[in-house]
Amino acid sequence: MKKSFEQEKMKFIGLKTKYDEPINKLKKYKYVKNKKSYQYLMNLTLLGVTNPSQIDKKITELEYAKKNELIKIEKKYSYLKNCKSDSLYYACVRDFYGLLSYLEFFKLANVVNKDEFLINLLKYIERNKLYYQDFYMFSVNYKPYLYYSFGEYFFEEGNYKLSFSNLINAAENKNNYNNYIFNGEYYYMLGVSAQKLGYYADALKFYEKSIKEMNKDIIRLSTNEQKKLIEKNKNIIANMIDSAIEAKKTYQDINGALFEKAINYSLNYKNSLFEIEDYIASLYYKTNDFELKSLIRSYFNLKRKLNENYIKNKDTKDLENQIKVVYNQILFYKPYKTTFVRREDVAKNLKDDELFVNIIYSNKRYYIFYFDHEDNFGWKIFNEKNSFLLNKKIKIYQKLVKQLKRNPYNARIVRQKNKITNQIYNDLFGFLINDKNMSFKKYKKIIIFSDGLLRLISFGELYDFHNKKYLIEEKEISYVPSAKFLLDKSVNKQIKNAIIFAAPDFNKGVGSKKFRGSGIITINDLFRGMKFSPLPGTLKEAKELQAIFNINKLHEKIYLKKQANVYNLLSINSPTILHIATHGFYINSDKVVNPMLKSGIALSGANKTKEGIVTALKITGLDLDNTNLVVLSACETGVVDLKSTDNVSALNKSFLLAGAKNVISTLWEINDNETVNFMKLFYKEYLKTNNVSEALRNTKIKFINDYKSSVYWAPFICFEK
């Protein structure tokens, strides 16, 4: 008996039973020192043991029961495998859910001939359709699901040939009973399988469908399922580019159309999964339609219930269907209009002296694409090793910045920082310097659509050892959180007025006053643990700026201390300049998925009530259609999670979505005096030029010429439309 069991054990490696957990717990309890504690005795009682001396006996009983269960499973498998009689075989598999339990068993257990069994099972169903019409008709309706299950199983096993054929068979047997399985996940598996088999053109088609389905799927999924989808979405863009390159090499893409399509998808769908959900939330803050508000509130309530059911392992299908119905009703009221951005469209909107840089980080690799107004085009793809080294350099840069914040004029640290930023400069732009068509010297401005850890770099601080200059001394630099913003042809308005929020009193309550947009997004416990320290230096900053605005005869309004609250922020009406001097926050937690909920600003009462916390998502509800410039002078992104940098641009993006043309924020916090000096110089330049990126560059150059440490000027970056 013992030998027989050991043989079966080798076959069933990886199979878990209900007895494993109690056996492991009891084995640990044998070595507990305090065997008389109430909690210890209670734990034993829950495991069916009334006395510590009976632990060994109970372990023996459970192990015997576990052996018997494994032997029973093995007998079922042998019985099914060795069935020669059709009637006996049919009796084993006639119940569909019983069949699914066998599928689950084969996924878990390391038994022989799994692949052969799954293939023969389908052949058996097909072969015996004339004899067992009832089972065959039942299986016809669910046949696509069976093929899907087999395809998924082979995909997980790495058998891409069988995965591809089964997934294709699922589509060929498609019917009204199983449309739900043809989702983003399905097309993703097809795409990967096709790519692994060398069908690159087909892989691109499947990835294209996968992206479209994922953007539909995201609205009805729980938070945990959204996380999985986001990971796949990040990989798809890289997979599309890799497939397009291989298609070109293998003559499956002779005219380059597939490669162009892959680039266009990278412009449109990088970090885009939450766009529609963000649109729905911003509608709530902007609309006065009671019925539409009610629908949106219902949508987010259903989403909260979905998360609760998912955590409790309850069925979620009904809730997912309800969410889809409400979602369609919302978009019937206010259709979501989106434009598919093509590289040629972006190129047309660039000026003659502008270079656009699209950076993608996926599958542990960097992909960088460059093009200009004349559609000169180049790219550089880092392998995994070089991408790792680039990230390592960025982390060293981050450490050196922290050291400089403590000792801004330490010559040794400055040399080390210049050395590492020169290496990053050469990695990113070195090959363009000698390119005849894309000579780096001819560009006066660089527009960056960044990704990965490169989001944490101040590109203006990259150092060119050859010219002994920072990049900002040679080029204007701006950023975009989405390529779609480059198609916005709006021009800066005449500078007429300014509104300043500064020195919020984080410990003062702001009352129970209701404001437009209250109540659709629940601030969870992660926000309640936040504490914000006072910012006395921002009071001086506000007074200095008020004086500059008065000299230039601008209408200005200033909100200080308790008045610097969310109610006053949400009530503003498109000032030309909006200056906010307060803390920004970034949450490093897997419990929050949407970057627009992981970042925001703190206003009056933030330490007392959730109303003082203003998420980026809530900011999208502001009225900033005629606003040229938003400045976030005290916000920092230095505390961002290095594993997920999406939230670096989320706060800036929220103001652009609200209508602002330009947003200036900081990558790290700097001291009060230098912030005031920088802002005074910047606004003097901006009021002369009405050009944000030019004024920002001029201000930085003045700081450099005055021998100011880069730690004081480099953190200021500009996002624009």
Describe this structure in words.
A six-stranded mixed beta sheet has the order 9-8-10-14-15-16, sandwiched between helices. A five-stranded mixed beta sheet has the order 3-2-1-4-7, with helices on both faces. β14 (629-632), α25 (646-657) and β15 form a beta-alpha-beta unit. It is of the alpha/beta class and 721 residues long. The chain has 28 helices and 16 strands. The termini are far apart. α12 (223-249) packs antiparallel against α13.
Major sheet: 6 strands, mixed
Percent helix range = 40-55%
Please list the strands of the largest sheet in the order they lie side by side. Answer: 9-8-10-14-15-16
Q: What oligomerization state is this entry in?
A: single chain
Mean pLDDT: 78
For the secondary structure, the number of strands is 16
Short description:
The chain has about 725 residues and is of the alpha/beta class. The chain contains 28 helices and 16 strands. The longest helix is centred in the first third of the chain and has 28 residues, at about 55-80.
